[in-house]
Amino acid sequence: NAGVMQNPRHLVRRRGQEARLRCSPVKGHSHVYWYRQLPEEGLKFMVYLQKENIIDESGMPKERFSAEFPKEGPSILRIQQVVRGDSAAYFCASSPLSGSRVYEQYFGPGTRLTVT
Amino acid sequence: QKEVEQNSGPLSVPEGAIASLNCTYSDRVSQSFFWYRQYSGKSPELIMSIYSNGDKEDGRFTAQLNKASQYVSLLIRDSQPSDSATYLCAVMGAGGTSYGKLTFGQGTILTVHP
Q1: Residue B11 burial by CB count (10 A; 0-12/13-18/19+): exposed, middle or buried?
Q2: What is the pLDDT of residue B93?
Q3: Exposed e or buried b for every residue in A54-93, given b needs 16+ CB within 10 A?
Q4: B103 touches A at CB < 8 Å
Q5: Which of A56, B40, B67, B84 is the most exposed place for a label (fewest CB within 10 A)?
Q6: Contact call for A31 and B107, based on CB within 8 A
Q7: Tens of pLDDT along B18-32?
């Protein structure tokens, strides 16, 4: 079974550019979550999505950040006009739709974003 | 008060000893609790989930939950150097806007020395 896949694993962007981070959940998982880990800080929730729906975006910065999980294809976290403070590790996690493990979230390898 | 607090560490134990990691949470209605292990530069790996009061054992790991005290712990028996990592406590709310969102503690760094 393939786990959660994220790409790219490393992304370097200049200030003002756009960053697109992609996440493919575990096969059969319908719930996707994005978390951010800033240097020397803990993991922070950003957004929770199901196919074609944003369930909870309470952790998303109000500007420049958006996320989607289309009917077909991976989930995308998009950061417009990146700033140095966006440099962090971005993790995607997924969980199944039902069953005894419905609350368990499995993390992908992460995308390390560096803004220069 | 932080939503999820872990003992600050770092925690150092000799090989073969029991490592005890503690976590308290502030949201009384929280229902689901998880322990993740994160090696330096890697992603969090789920090692235990617990939903009911009491103990849950899986191999060398035992999770303990006390909802009345809002306390969850992880015991690692027969600690190995390969257990050296940061251990993250995570809590999920009961429903509504809290469902799905994991709130993490700041992590406890564990070092197991030979």
Answers
A1: middle
A2: 77
A3: ebbbebbeeeebebbbeeeebbbbebeebeeebbbbbbbb
A4: yes
A5: B40
A6: no
A7: 999 999 999 888 889
